[in-house]
Design goal:
Blueprint: H1 22-33, E1 38-41, H2 48-59, E2 64-69, H3 81-97, H4 106-115, H5 122-135, E3 140-145, H6 154-168, E4 178-183, E5 192-193, E6 202-203, H7 220-234, H8 240-251, H9 255-267, H10 271-274, H11 277-289, H12 293-304, H13 306-318, H14 329-336, E7 340-343, E8 346-349, H15 352-364, H16 371-378, E9 384-385, E10 388-389, H17 391-406, H18 411-430, E11 434-438, E12 447-454, E13 457-466, H19 472-484, E14 489-496, E15 504-510, E16 513-519
Parallel strand pairs: 1-4, 2-3, 3-4, 13-14, 14-16
Antiparallel strand pairs: 5-6, 7-8, 9-10, 11-12, 12-13, 15-16
Length: 520
């Protein structure tokens, strides 16, 4: 059976195109050899389950590994100590039942088989763990996936407290060599009452865990290694490093997005010609427009955490620089769910794919009542000529529509919303065929560069707030971007608050390139 790209569940090296995980596995194995307890907290579809599966195989030469998951456990299991202990023992027993664990004897199997049926409390479970670990011929490692399913239940926190207690006394009483918990939420932030009579005294049952610092995102080199294997199978003639760089530009190495873009390109009819820049842009367009569980979860989290939604909106549309602070709950939530990250102590959107999807989401919430969107929608067909986007005409008509609709608006309103209005105007014109994204390096309160992809062609349009000061710097910055994108024509929209401004569109030649500027 030929290999394929996989975005649904566990990835297996024999069946799927994957990045080389050996470096990451070596780093995690070193933590286990040190006897570390830790949690792998990463956003959804970030490769946690695949890493655990590969880790189990990697450790099988020297360790007895119990790899279990809390996914799908019924709520009733967490209603009491006995039911939780029985289910936990059943999960351990099933590892024996459906496979083998090197280093554990048949007596260990029988002990688990009996334990899954009898009444137990956490003290009994603690003793059983010690017996298993003392009888094992090698160190025992416990890995639990999908721990988020259990994190709301007190019995789970008490169970973690028991593991912590055994960890602290492991020099005297046998216990697991290492315990690994995998999920989205940060288990170290869960709190448990220290004593029943202490109403306000809480402690983390997982404060013995060390920080998990292994980088699970894909680098350009990682992606290139995966594509090299694919190229050896299909001989498409792709420039592996160029395509890898493009994939990284759009995804920042988010594993699901990298694999999904590759999957989309692989599923297009002609593999021979699709592994090009145009193919990447086509796959990006499809990905940003599709419905998948990751985007569905993103929308749900924005509804659940309005402060997070407000922060992302301010970053995207108002160019605000949000200082990174681990003490701000909504920043922590954004980072936990993979939507935001810390770059030079500033909060930024994690990758270009999320940015594009967020722009579409926020703009869609305004479309119904947007007069500027309606103005573009009425004449959207006139902007496409012989299959090409006439960006100069877009600027001309935008200036006219903007002036007609917002000529009486206050200056601070226009400054805050002008760029959003242009994106609303642009959306119906390229919708379904093209995409746009904001160049993150230039997004601030005074300047934004919009990169428009339409049928494989790119247009660089700089949006700038201008109060009459010298505008030459904006032009020079735009020329630099034209060099980056190998283009000869650039577009500049100046939201000008100089009373003597001349509204309209003009052309000028600079350094052998054409700059088309619209002054609003």
């Amino acid at each position: 059976m030929s290999k394929r790209f996989n975005t649904a569940g566990l990835c297996r090296p024999a069946r799927h195109y994957m990045v080389d995980m050996s470096r990451r596995l070596a780093e995690v194995r070193e933590m286990i050899e040190n006897g570390d307890y830790f949690a792998i907290n990463r956003a959804r579809q970030y490769g946690k389950t695949t890493l655990l599966h590969l880790l189990k195989e990697n450790l099988s030469d020297s360790y007895a590994v119990f790899s279990i998951s809390f996914e799908g456990i019924e709520r009733e299991v967490y209603s009491g100590v006995a039911s939780f202990c029985r289910r936990f023992c059943r999960l351990l027993y099933n590892v024996f039942r459906y496979g083998t664990i090197e280093g554990l004897s048949d007596s260990c199997r029988r002990s688990l088989e009996q334990a899954k049926e009898r009444e137990m409390d956490l003290a009994d479970l603690s003793d059983l763990i010690s017996d298993l670990c003392s009888q094992a011929g090698r160190p025992v490692v416990l890995m639990i996936d999908e721990v988020d399913q259990a994190s709301n239940y007190e019995i789970f926190l008490t169970f973690l407290g028991m593991l912590r207690s055994k960890y602290l006394s492991r020099e005297e009483i046998p216990t697991f060599q290492s315990v690994i918990l995998a999920g989205v939420y940060d288990i170290k932030n869960l709190k448990l009452k220290m004593r029943p009579e202490a109403e306000h005294q809480y402690n983390s049952p997982w404060n013995v865990a060390v920080e998990f610092l292994v980088d699970m995102s894909f680098s350009v080199e990682d992606i290139a290694g995966m594509l090299t294997e694919y190229e050896q199978d299909y001989h498409t003639g792709m420039d592996v490093w160029e395509i890898s760089g493009l994939l990284y530009e759009y995804t920042s190495g988010y594993p699901f997005f990298v694999s999904r873009l590759c999957q989309l390109m692989d599923e297009l009819p002609s593999k021979k010609y699709i592994w090009t820049k145009d193919g990447v842009l086509e796959a990006v367009k499809q990905l940003v427009s599709e419905s998948n569980t990751l985007f569905d979860d993103m929308v749900k989290k924005l509804d659940d955490f309005p402060e997070l939604k407000k922060m992302l909106y301010r970053i995207l549309f108002q160019g605000q620089r949000i200082p990174y602070s681990v003490d701000q709950h909504f920043i922590e939530i954004g980072q936990m769910f993979g939507l935001a990250k810390n770059v030079n102590e500033t909060v930024v959107i994690t990758n270009r794919i999320f940015e594009m999807r967020l722009y579409n989401l926020f703009l869609s919430e305004e479309i119904v009542n947007s007069r500027i969107y309606a103005a573009a929608d009425l004449e959207k067909n006139r902007f496409i000529q012989n299959g090409h986007l006439n960006m100069e005409l877009v600027l001309e008509r935008f200036v006219e529509a903007f002036t007609d609709i917002y000529s009486d608006a206050k200056e601070d309103f226009l400054e805050e919303n002008g760029r959003r209005f242009f994106l609303l105007y642009l959306k119906p014109i390229i919708n379904g065929v093209g995409n746009y994204y904001i160049e993150a390096r230039t997004r601030d309160q005074r300047r934004t560069d919009v990169i428009v992809d339409y049928r494989g062609e790119q247009y660089v349009c700089e949006l700038k707030i201008w109060r009459g000061e010298e505008n030459r710097r904006g032009e020079q910055q735009l020329l630099g971007y034209l060099d980056d994108y190998h283009l000869t024509t650039g577009y500049l929209i100046s939201f000008c608050f100089n009373q003597k401004k001349q509204v309209g569109v003009k052309r000028q030649q600079l350094g052998g390139r054409t700059i088309i500027e619209a002054i609003v």
